[in-house]
Hints:
The chain is an alpha+beta fold. The protein has helices at about 5-20, 80-85, 140-150, 205-215, 265-280, 330-340; strands at about 1-5, 30-35, 40-45, 50-60, 65-70, 70-75, 90-95, 100-105, 110-115, 135, 165-170, 170-180, 180-190, 200-205, 220-225, 230-235, 235-240, 260-265, 290-295, 300-305, 310-315, 320-325, 325-330, 345-350, 360, 370-375. Helix 3 packs antiparallel against helix 4 and helix 5 (about 265-280) runs antiparallel to helix 6 (about 330-340).
Amino acid sequence: MKFTVNRQSFIKKLNDVSRAISTKTTIPILTGLKLEVTNNEITFTGSDTDISIETTLRADDENAELNVEEAGNIVLPARFFGEIVKRLPEATMTIAVKEGFQANITSGAAAFTINGLDANSYPHLPEIESDDEVTLAGDVFRDIINTTVIAVSNQESRPILTGVHFTLAGDQFTAVATDSHRLSQRKITLPTPATETHDVIIPGKSLVELSRMIGEDSTDVKMRLAENQVLFLLGDTSFYSRLLEGNYPDTSRLIPSESDTTMEISAPTLLSAIERASLLSHESRNNVVKITLKGEEKSATIFGNSPDVGAVEENLSAISLEGSDLEISFNPDYLKDALRSFGQSQIKLSFTSALRPFTLVPSEDEQNFIQLITPVRTF
């Protein structure tokens, strides 16, 4: 195996695949990067059994400057190899594997030799052949992930809640996540209805890595589902993830259908106020912020305090406030995460009682995006 390639183009592909490579694995070969070279392309593969990523650098890519002298394959230690490639002195580099599994890496006056492994020992990636495919614009899919993954659980005691629950029925594509303290749900209407119904749970960690790979200028993301795997296609890159097994709880019953008090406000305005209040609440043992709503007076006030530091009180500039008087306490970090997902939009908060979950929805699209937060009992 021998080829010469532009180093920056190579590093970009290497970085994508490295997201799936872990130094902590019970299968030693998975700490390595698999390179498979044909006459006109290099295929990079990385996996930690939960996530697998495969991407291709093609000779017809002008920036790649790829020249293959001899085809072949090898598995190289990902961490050392990556550090070497990033520090080479010239714009191009040459990698050659002669007899055995030793790779010679040269660039300018620098020359490295590192030991590799037999690529035939590398586990095969799952084969996902599905006619049913969901296609979404990259920015839309990234937004769905980023607005729901904030609510996944970090507790392994209930593994099913560490994932995002995706359902596909007709033209309705729904994503929901909850850690039992908060919930986030997004709905999208697909331009082309699906021919099959799907109900899967994708690990939150997988989705975070996928979101980072979807660039600002990304094209469409294609999603294919199999029995225990999901495949996302992003141009020349394939992103595989295992699915979580089990039944996701019925979250629809958690969302209140009625409310006694509603407040409309700019998301950035409320976020700024909560950030100020949480400066003090974070110094307190229970980290709680309280909001008092007075329907007749149309006033909303936020309180935060720490017995050791002090207190803060701030009147909110709400666009509208209607309904019964209410005093409710909550974890400010949950509310900040929820508010950031709305960006610059105006939102509507709906409350039922001091001990019942309250909801946040964008004023212009109340049906397709909802955040829910469970209050904290303070008495």
